[in-house]
Design brief:
The structure is a single chain. The chain has a single domain (about 20-180), classed as Ribonuclease Inhibitor (Leucine-rich repeat, LRR (right-handed beta-alpha superhelix), Alpha-Beta Horseshoe). Helix content is about 50%, strand content about 10%. It has 7 helices and 6 strands. The protein has helices at about 1-20, 25-35, 50-60, 75-90, 105-115, 140-145, 165-175; strands at about 40, 65-70, 95, 125, 155, 180. A 6-stranded parallel beta sheet has the order 1-2-3-4-5-6. α4 runs parallel beside α5, α5 packs parallel to α6 (about 140-145) and α6 packs parallel to α7. The chain is globular. Keywords: Repeat. InterPro entries: Leu-rich_rpt, LRR-containing_regulator, LRR_dom_sf.
Length: about 180
């Protein structure tokens, strides 16, 4: 019991330290270099909540970025929700690479809802490989696939989605024009 409490205190103090730190210098440096560029590459950065919020906020008004790479950045469902809000208003992003994070179903559904609502008509590629997505609410995902016709590539490799749900998603992608390539 005492060990559990110590771990909880360590976790809490680490979270508080991250909030006090704000945006990391490395992320600010990458962001400053990325402004006005087509590719924003943050892969392999251990992003804090403040880092991700700053990136998403910048992309709400950016008119140049077409590719955002956040692979292996320690992202969770709340981070995906922040990105979903950005997707509702961003008009230029074509590729969103989010593989090998911890986005899970909750984060994926937030992104699906943002894409389904029709705000973003530019995103063509969404990579969610290895994000612990089970695809429990497959109906919402199917609806996003059928309504967002700009999305042509959806990568879901390495997620524990049942074969039945994978088949439903594949069918949804094949039934629309243009077809959706999904793995």
């Amino acid at each position: 019991m005492a060990a559990s409490k110590d771990l909880q205190q360590q976790t809490t103090s680490t979270d508080e330290d991250d909030e006090e730190k704000g945006v990391s210098e490395k992320v600010q440096e990458i962001l400053d270099k990325s402004k006005g560029a087509v590719n924003w590459l943050f892969n392999d950065q251990q992003l804090s909540d403040a880092d991700l919020k700053l990136i998403a906020d910048e992309l709400k008004t950016d008119q140049k970025c077409e590719r955002l790479d956040l692979q292996r950045c320690n992202l969770y469902p709340a981070d995906a929700s922040e990105l979903a809000e950005m997707l509702k208003v961003n008009k230029t992003l074509k590729q969103l690479w989010l593989s090998h994070n911890y986005i899970q179903d909750k984060g994926f559904l937030a992104i699906c809802e943002a894409l389904r609502e029709g705000g973003n008509k530019s995103l063509e590629t969404l990579d969610l490989t290895g994000n612990h997505i089970k695809g429990k609410k497959v109906g919402i995902i199917e609806e996003m696939i059928q309504t967002n016709l700009s999305l042509t590539h959806l990568y879901l490799w390495g997620n524990p989605i049942t074969e039945e749900n994978r088949e439903r998603l594949r069918n949804a992608g094949e039934e629309r024009t243009p077809k959706l390539y999904m793995q």
